[in-house]
Each structure stands twice: as C-alpha cells, then as structure tokens.
C-alpha cells in the first residue's frame, strides 16, 4: 500500500460516503463486505484530516449527517441536488421540505459546513426539468442566508444560468465552491469574479483542455476533492501521466481487506488530484497543498457560527 509523501493534512471537500458501494453493493448486488471503516482509516493514514460527506436530498442529508457524527474527521453538507429537486413538489409541501433542510443545519452546527449539493444540471433533465431545478436552487439561498454557511454548488452544462442566479442572489450567501468543475476558462473566470472557489477532482482533469483550465486558476481559489466513489483519475485521462502515488487495488469480486476496490474512488486518492494540479502548474506539491488546505479551512471551517 502506497503512503502519501505529502504529510500536509488534506481536506476532501466532496465524498459520497453514503453510496451503497461502500457497503459492498454495486447496482443492487452485494459483492463484498462493508468496508467504509477501512476507507476512512486509509484516508486518515494518507494525510486526509477532514472529509466533507455530500448531502443530496433531505433523506440523504440526514444519512450523511448521521455518518458524520460517527467520526471526528467527517462533516457534511445539507441540501438538494438539482436532479432531485422534484422532491420539493413530490413532498406535497415544498416549503416544509425547505424548512426541514434548514432545521437540519441549525440543529447540527458542529457537523454541517455547507449548503448543498445544489445548483443546476442540464445534462440530466430526464430526472428533473431545468425550470424546477432553477426554482428550488434559488429557494436554497434562504438556508445559506439564515445560517451564514458557504454553498457547495453543482454545475453541468448550465454555467450561464447558474451565474445569472448567483448574481441575483449574491448578497444572500457568503461564498461558494463550484465542485467537480469541468468548464471553460471563461466560465471559471465568471465564478471567480463572484468571489467563488473551484473544486477539482478526476472529472475536472479528463482532457487536455480541462488541464489547461486548471493550470490557469489562481491557487488561492482552488480546492480538491474526490467525489468518491466517482470521478477517479483514469489511465485514459490526459492528467494520468502526472500521477505519482498509486495504491494497490483488487476487483470488487476479489475484494481483499487492505486493498482499494478497483475503479471505486475513495478519499485516500486525493493525493493524485494534488499531484496533477501541482505538475500542470509547475508548483511545489507541498506548498500547493498548504495553500489549498488554508483555502478550505477558511471557507468551510471558519463560518460565522464556528
């Protein structure tokens, strides 16, 4: 098992640790024993000091919060993902759904560090039409405004509308990170001009164009994440040649304790994201790790109620 040479503490700003894959379940089929405890232990051993578990709906946020309460390194977001915003109407009481999200935040200040995952996703409108996404994304600024928390934003093929809504509500939230960013330099600049941060993971580093965008970002506005169990850096990615730290893995059907599961991303892999960013920017990896760590602490762990 590889061990990160960088001893600076990492913060993974986005990990879907409530996903069934960490219970050994893939597409409804049990392939191996639950190993989330191993995943968290491995992350800590490789320098990950904090992990923000992503909440994507009312029920998912409740589950993420309960998980966060089990370990001192875990925190969570609370919000509704754009592809799940139909839940507001399906609940029969959209205002009640919003208030329940808000109360979940207010009653758990020690563990909730951001409002989200919320935003817009125009690639998957089969799950929720964009008009509904826009309506209930805008509603969630109410939570950010009343709690002073930053926002954890989702943006897929929707940057123009997302920027418009953010501008309209800019006085209602402190700041935000656009996570899993895969947009253009121009789109990044619009978010940066609003005082926002950019979250980078393997999905942000697929193509040479993606890599060029990441190389152009100001280091004081970068955060890193895994988006586990998704968005790993794959051999086919333009960025893969810059990865130095490789962990041993086994196929899920041949699960073995102490090994990563092949093609299932996890927080310990965050070192690879850092290595790529440092390489394409020609920056010292330790120095960049420190800047990114400080960015993340400033935004998520120094809120107005901490």
Automatic annotation (TrEMBL):
Task: Spell out the CDD domains in the cross-references.
Answer: TatD_DNAse (cd01310)
List UniProt keywords, sorted A-Z: Hydrolase, Metal-binding, Nuclease
User: Pfam families of this UniProt entry?
Assistant: TatD_DNase
Summarize the protein's role.
Deoxyribonuclease which catalyzes (in vitro) the decatenation of kinetoplast DNA, which are circular DNA catenated to each other, producing linear DNA molecules. Plays an important role in chromosomal segregation and cell cycle progression during eye development probably via its DNA decatenation activity.
Question: InterPro entries, per this entry?
Answer: DNase_TatD-rel_CS (IPR018228), Metal_Hydrolase (IPR032466), TatD-like (IPR001130), TatD-type_Hydrolase (IPR050891)
Its gene?
LOC106473730
Query: What is the recorded name of this protein?
Result: Deoxyribonuclease TATDN1
PROSITE patterns, per database record: TATD_3 (PS01091)
Native organism is Limulus polyphemus
**Family as reported in the entry's similarity comment:** Belongs to the metallo-dependent hydrolases superfamily. TatD-type hydrolase family.
Statement: the UniProt record of this protein carries the keyword NAD: no
Report whether Protein biosynthesis shows up as a keyword of the record: no
């Amino acid at each position: 098992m590889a061990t990160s040479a960088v001893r600076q503490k990492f913060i993974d700003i986005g990990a879907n640790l409530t996903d069934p894959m960490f219970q050994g379940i893939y597409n409804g089929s049990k392939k191996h024993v639950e190993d989330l405890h191993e995943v968290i232990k491995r992350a800590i051993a490789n320098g990950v000091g904090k992990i923000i578990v992503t909440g994507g709906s009312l029920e998912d946020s409740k589950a993420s919060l309960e998980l966060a309460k089990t370990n001192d390194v875990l925190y969570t977001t609370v919000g509704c993902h754009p592809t799940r915003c139909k839940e507001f109407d399906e609940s029969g009481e959209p205002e009640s759904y919003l208030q329940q999200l808000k109360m979940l935040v207010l009653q758990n200040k020690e563990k909730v560090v951001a409002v989200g995952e919320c935003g817009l996703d125009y690639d998957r409108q089969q799950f929720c039409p964009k008009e509904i996404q826009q309506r209930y994304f805008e509603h969630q600024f109410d939570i950010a405004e009343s709690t002073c928390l930053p926002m954890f934003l989702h943006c897929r093929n929707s940057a123009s509308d997302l920027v418009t809504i953010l501008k309209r509500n800019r006085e209602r939230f402190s700041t935000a990170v656009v996570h899993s960013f895969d947009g253009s330099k121009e789109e990044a600049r619009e978010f940066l001009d609003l005082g926002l941060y950019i979250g980078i993971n393997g999905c942000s580093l697929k193509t040479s164009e993606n890599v060029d965008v990441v190389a152009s970002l100001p280091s004081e506005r970068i955060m890193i994440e895994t988006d586990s169990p998704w968005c790993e850096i794959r051999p086919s990615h333009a960025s893969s040649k810059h990865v130095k730290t490789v962990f041993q893995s086994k196929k899920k059907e041949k699960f073995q304790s102490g090994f990563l599961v092949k093609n299932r991303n996890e927080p310990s892999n965050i070192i690879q994201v850092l290595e790529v960013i440092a390489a394409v920017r020609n920056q010292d990896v330790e120095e960049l790790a420190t800047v990114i760590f400080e960015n993340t602490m400033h935004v998520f762990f120094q809120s107005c109620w901490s």
